[in-house]
Structures are given as C-alpha cells and as structure tokens.
Design goal:
This protein is of the alpha+beta class. About 40% of the residues lie in helices and about 20% in strands. It has helices at about 10-25, 35-40, 85-100, 115-125, 135-140, 150-155, 180-195; strands spanning about 45-50, 55-65, 70-75, 105-110, 125-130, 165.
C-alpha cells in the first residue's frame, strides 16, 4: 500500500532492516534518517507492505535533476517475508507511483542484485552506462556509504560494481494506479504548489 503518516511507527524497523541486509550482502547503503523516510511517507512517495501490523517490506521514490529522473530506492523485505514475491509487488507499486507522478521522467536504478535486475528488466528497464543517468550530485553523494565507492571515484563515475538500468518513458505507455491514490497525490501536489 502507499504509505502515509500512520506508518511512521515502522520507520526504525525499516532502517534497521536495510542496515542489516547491507551488512549481510557486504555492500554500503545510502544513509537515510527517520525524518527523511517519514517525509517520504507523508508525501505519498513510499510503499509499505504489512501483514496485519507486522512489517514485511518497504521502498520509496526520489526525484533528481529537476524531476527529469526518478529512482525507486531503499527496497527492502523483512527476512520473514523473503522469497514470497513481496519485493516484486513493492517494486511494481513504486514504479507505478513514479510513472504517475512524473510521467515524462526517466526512471533509473543502480543495483548489484540479480533479483532487482530481473524485476527492472520485466518493467522495461535497460542496462545503460552511468553517463546516461542523472548528473545530480546529490544522488551520487548517496554512493558514499558503499564499500565500493573507491571504484566509482577511481573511474570518474563512469562505472562501478553496480549495474545502471534505465526506463525511458518515451518508449512505453502510461501505467495505471488506483483512483484513491491519484486523488491523494493531487491533494499533496496541490499543497506543495502553494508552498512554492
């Protein structure tokens, strides 16, 4: 489901699950704070999976390069729910949210995980060079927490251990999302416009 402020009680569990998974994989992660994840929930830029009241999985979306690029980030599934298709359902929903919110934006992913590469491929992403991804410095600072950042720096950000994957909306038709979610997004986006 699309997360909202009522899901803030899960943020610490989400962050702990992401950190534990990175340790097991031996990779770094983009550090996110409690406040950052909570904000994503309030802005309808996050998806959470629950079984009753138990946390099962999570992901969020971010925009880069003046909203010309979007990433679906922080995909995590609690160990108790791995291998059940939860990650695929979360990935599908964050991808759909990104398509609805920013229909002309290119959606990209950096991953070293075979499962994520397979999900991305099924959604229409293609492997690309890093030069085809955002040049937004804020995005690339997120790689600082990765154990392989030396490779990225040494190659002047041309490549790393991760594979860059890109979905270009110009090559695909729009996705569908429930009307109640669209209405919530319109309200949130209207409030953001008033702040500008």
């Amino acid at each position: 489901m699309v997360a909202d402020s009522s899901h803030e009680k899960y943020v610490d569990t989400i962050l702990d699950t992401i950190t534990a998974a990175a340790k097991v994989r031996g990779t770094g992660i983009a550090k996110r704070t409690h406040e950052y994840v909570t904000t994503k929930m309030k802005e309808a830029k996050a998806v959470i999976a629950l079984e009753g009241e138990k946390f099962a999985g999570f992901s969020y979306i971010e925009t880069w390069g003046n909203k010309q690029y979007v990433t679906t980030s922080g995909l995590i599934v609690h160990p108790d729910y791995r291998g059940l298709g939860v990650a695929k359902r979360i990935k599908d929903m964050t991808f759909t949210l990104a398509r609805i919110r920013w229909p002309k934006a290119k959606i990209f992913s950096l991953t070293s995980g075979a499962a994520v590469m397979q999900m991305n491929t099924q959604l229409g992403y293609k492997p690309v060079t890093f030069a085809e991804l955002t040049d937004d410095e804020a995005f690339w600072r997120g790689c600082e927490g990765c154990v392989n950042v030396d490779v990225l720096k040494r190659t002047e950000r041309k490549y790393c251990i991760c594979t860059g994957m890109l979905f270009d909306p110009a090559e695909h038709l729009p996705a569908k999302i429930p009307d109640e979610v669209l209405e919530r997004i319109r309200k949130i986006d209207g409030q953001e416009s008033e702040k500008d």
